[in-house]
Amino acid sequence: MTYHMTFRGAVVPAEPGQSVGAALVAAGIRDWRGTRRGGRPRGLFCGIGVCFDCLITVDGVPDRRACLTPAADGLHLTGTPTPGGPAPEDPGLGGPIPEAPASKARVLGGPVPEAPASKARVLGGPVPEAPASEDPALGGPVPEAPASEDPALGGGEIGGGHAPSA
């Protein structure tokens, strides 16, 4: 038996056991509400009830999580209204993302300005080559250790390395 729900004037099929969110995504509907600031589109994100991106109005009851609400025959689904955002039934929900002023470009994901050379290492720039001679901790060669005179430590005699037998 297939259920039939309505969303934005269209019939959305759903199978028993499916959530409202899963049925909407299966029908190709990826967003059903907009963010409070900017009206950017939101829909199914985590799918397990942890986040609140999938809020939807089900039969007039707002703020239901679409991923946790079981699909049922005859449900009327509408996008959750957002203060200052587009109308919930607006097919262009969210619309284009407005251009950010230049002063906020970095906060909104714009390009990061070039760092001065003095800060290049801190910001992930190339690490200058260290001289390969001085300190082994800084990548220089490891000096060869002199052979030990104690036979128990493996030195003293050529071919040594074992303690003498008694």
Quick description:
This protein is mainly β. Helices cover 4% and strands 16% of the residues.
Features:
five-stranded mixed beta sheet, mainly beta, single chain, two-stranded antiparallel sheet, 1 helix, about 15% strand, about 170 residues
Structure description:
The chain has 166 residues and is mostly beta strands. It has one helix and seven strands; from the N terminus they run ββαβββββ. The protein has a five-stranded mixed sheet with strand order 2-1-7-5-6, with helices on one face. A two-stranded antiparallel ribbon has the order 3-4. β1 and β2 (10-14) form a beta hairpin. The longest helix has 7 residues, at 20-26. It is elongated and about 95 Å long.
Question: What is the element string, with H for helices and E for strands?
Answer: EEHEEEEE
Could you name the ranges where pLDDT drops below 50 across 5 or more consecutive residues? Answer: 85-107
Q: How much beta, percentage-wise?
A: 15-25%
Mean pLDDT, rounded to whole units? 73
Tally of strands: 7
What is this structure's SSE topology?
Layout (H helix, E strand, L loop, with lengths): L2 E5 L2 E5 L5 H7 L6 E2 L6 E2 L12 E4 L2 E5 L10 E4 L87
